Amino acid sequence: MKRFFGVFLMMLCTIVLYSGSAIAISMDEFKLNGFFDLEYEESYQDDSSIGDRKGAFDQYHFNILMEFPLSDNVTVKGHIEYEHSPKIEGGGGKGEINLEWAYLEYIINNDIGIRGGSFLTPFGIYNEIHDATPTYASVRTPWGIYRADKVGGFVMIPKFSTGISMLGKYYTDGDLNLNYVVYISNGENTDSNEAEADDNSNKAIGGRLMISPIPGLTVGGSYFTGKKGTTKDNHSTWAGSAEYTIRNIGLRAEYASSKLADTTQNGSYGEVSYRVLRRITPYLRYGMFDPDDEGDKDEWSELVYGINYELQPNFIIKIENRHFNGNTNNAKVSDDYNELGAAVAVAF
């Protein structure tokens, strides 16, 4: 198996290097864009151990996305994230600098493309856009699936993967079309950098298939499986996703289940948004999470409602209220509280 993928990678490199249309990179073809956001968060809870009672601004993201086309079908892409306004002093400091993705992409035809490198794990609706806050209505993603570790569980899927993926889109003569991706990667490391070396001989595999049977409706599923780091615990996750847009109404819903060793956790949410006056979008989300389907009184839920206002194209203001409910045995949220969230998000 490992020999096969080694040969496959060598073949990919050979195809790219000897592509007849390959040319030196020209800065005229170079593409640069990104996004920025500033958030504010304050808990209404008197107990300062839950949420942020003081209230605080967070210069959360300043992200740069780059594309270096080598030819019509070969591109190198990169995405650098500066999170929480990092300050680096003598090798230490505060904040984070992350390489969200860096990969070589070869487009074989309209239906098939191959990527090799580090990429955001293709899973569900939000993981590939989890930091791109201008692309979705709310201030942050649904935590019951995408930040399960924040609400008493373990990480459902790795945010990042390093390996090889094949992806593409297929369109029929009618309304039906589909979008797919399959990948093999180093998986989840515990001791080392998975973008450099694997902790174990196992390779993680996964994929996502999204189908649009009629205009406005997209349904599909995602899957991930692998062994977690040096412990070699089995970890597998699947999710079902659905999106429907009709006129100014948007609907989203997902259900995910993840098993690590002997523990199974489940998360879900439903969202509705309604765009009015072309720039104002009220939204509502309800989400649930169970960190252990055999545990008792450890569930968590959220009710989020707010308004997304596009002040001008690509300049968005968001404000929302979050009501959290945590049962007494939840490891992270064992009480109920409300929280104010607000953000300015800009795409450029």
Secondary structure: elements and pairs:
Layout: H1 2-17, E1 31-43, E2 56-69, E3 74-89, E4 92-107, E5 113-120, H2 143-146, E6 160-171, E7 177-185, E8 204-212, E9 217-228, E10 233-246, E11 249-260, E12 263-274, E13 280-290, E14 300-312, E15 315-326, E16 336-347
Antiparallel strand pairs: 1-2, 1-16, 2-3, 3-4, 4-5, 5-6, 6-7, 7-8, 8-9, 9-10, 10-11, 11-12, 12-13, 13-14, 14-15, 15-16
Which structural traits does this protein have?
mainly beta, Porin
Q: If you had to describe this structure to a student in words, what would you say it looks like?
A:
The chain is mostly beta strands and 348 residues long. The chain has one domain: Porin (Beta Barrel), CATH 2.40.160.10. The protein is 6% helix and 56% strand. The chain is built from 2 helices and 16 strands. The chain has helices at residues 2-17, 143-146; strands spanning 31-43, 56-69, 74-89, 92-107, 113-120, 160-171, 177-185, 204-212, 217-228, 233-246, 249-260, 263-274, 280-290, 300-312, 315-326, 336-347. The protein has a 16-stranded antiparallel barrel. Strand 14 (300-312) and strand 15 form a beta hairpin. The longest helix has 16 residues, at 2-17. Residues 15-23 have low confidence and may be disordered.
